[in-house]
Design a protein that fits this description.
Length: 197
Amino acid sequence: MRRCYFPNGNGPDGLPYVDYVVGDGETDAGPAIDPGVLALYAYEQIDIAPVSMGLAPEPGPDTLGLVGLPVWMWVEDPDATTFGPASIDLSVGPVSVSLTARVERIEWDMGDGTVVTCTGPGTPYTPARGATASPDCGHRYEQTSAGRSGDSFDVTATAYWVAQWSSNSGAGGTLTNTTQATEQVRIGESQVIVTRD
């Protein structure tokens, strides 16, 4: 029997090591570790993080968007841990797995009862774009945020991760996870004042 220790002392199922049987001639003859458990452990090593939310109008008490104008949503500086893809190969004794994880979609809960689903990271807004709508991830508020907590809408971005894995044993599968981030956006209403000379 062989005993494989994990470098950080925390392997699958919380064990610091895994025992597996070896046969004659030092040939591995029956690993005691489940490839699916090793895949889950590999997924945890990616340490995925919530997205950094890009919004126009910008979040915060000093910025005010307007009813009817386009709202842009995007992932600020997406990388392997916030959007993917992120890949990892891991071996314990005779068992090895390869795993690749990425965000499949982001659901933007706009706080007004609307959920916008975007399959990509979105397009960052720049002042040169003016009042045009986002080409791939946007929204328009039909009511103000006045009277709500903080006079703002809570906008929550839920990223849905999907990880595909395979092993040298022939096993494979899919793992899923989610992350969330929230910002507050204030939306007002434009008032037109008519005056007579």
